[in-house]
From TrEMBL:
Signal peptide: none annotated. It comes from the Eukaryota. One of its GO terms (cellular component) is axoneme. InterPro entries: CFAP91, CFAP91_dom. Keywords: Cell projection, Cytoplasm, Cytoskeleton. Belongs to the CFAP91 family. It is found in: Cytoplasm, Cytoskeleton, Cilium axoneme. Residues 4-156 form the CFAP91 domain. Its main location: cytoplasm. Coiled coil: none annotated. This is Cilia- and flagella-associated protein 91.
């Protein structure tokens, strides 16, 4: 009368089919005993190959029943001939099985070789792609270096062209201070000047912010309205109208206060 719910499926708890014990009566050979070698997972459930094997066993038992008795020499020769023919048939069938097995192995070997070739081609493609990327990276770096060297040589040629005759020129201070791109305002680091090393001299130093006396003087200069705050009390709201009636909002507030209490 009770139901239970498990954490497993029926397929996970299913066991192999049960094979009960059996007793063979004396003097009888059941055909079912020829399938005793087949077990679940090894031949059962029966497929096409197992069915063919069962049919061959039946044919062999029928052939054994047709063998002549060994009571005279002619019957013995006939029996020997029939057995030789059956043996040749069995060898021919065995050769066919071997050929089928070899064909299956050959197909498996072809698939393995094809898969190995595909893997090798994929590996070769990855390797070629890796080498191509490395060559492209080296090519780009070389082009960048050539462009950098070209720009450097152009700057040198332009600088030489400004003073072709090699005359010595005096320093024009007025020109340097009038040009905001000169060495006075924007010195270059390649001539040995690094503006970041002296960055502390650009910090703003204020007397009113960095010293106590400056703060006191700054506070004294402020008006009283900044330091002394004046608060005006809010005017009470009128709950009555000019004619003496109580406003609707006032009545609602009173009701809300009562409900809240």
């Amino acid at each position: 009368t009770l139901g239970t719910q498990t954490d497993y499926r029926d397929g996970e708890t299913q066991t192999d089919p049960y094979s009960p014990e059996y007793v063979v009566p004396s003097g009888s050979v059941p055909e079912l005993l020829t399938l005793a070698t087949l077990t679940w997972g090894r031949g059962l459930p029966a497929g096409l190959a197992e069915v063919e094997m069962i049919e061959r066993a039946r044919e062999k038992r029928a052939w054994e029943a047709t063998l002549p008795a060994m009571d005279n020499a002619s019957q013995i020769a006939k029996r020997r001939k029939m057995m030789d023919d059956m043996e040749r048939k069995e060898w021919a069938f065995r050769e066919q099985e071997i050929e089928k097995l070899q064909e299956v192995r050959l197909e498996v070997l072809k698939k393995l070789l094809q898969r190995r070739e595909e893997n090798q081609n994929e590996l070769d493609a990855k390797r070629l792609d890796y080498h191509w990327q490395n060559h492209q990276k080296a090519k780009e770096e070389k082009m960048k270096k050539i462009q950098h060297d070209c720009a450097l040589m152009l700057r040198k040629l332009i600088a030489k062209r400004k003073n072709v005759m090699g005359k010595l020129e005096r320093r024009d201070i007025i020109k340097e201070y009038s040009d905001f791109a000169s060495q006075t305002y924007a010195p270059l680091s390649r001539i040995g000047y690094f503006p970041d090393n002296h960055s502390e001299r650009y910090v703003v130093k204020n007397f009113y912010l960095n010293t106590f006396a400056g703060l006191c003087e700054l506070e004294a200069s402020l008006p009283d309205s900044v330091t002394q705050v004046k608060i005006k009390a809010p005017k009470p709201k009128y709950t009555t109208t000019k004619t003496g009636f109580i406003k609707r909002s006032a009545r609602l507030e009173v009701e809300l206060a009562q409900v809240h209490q």
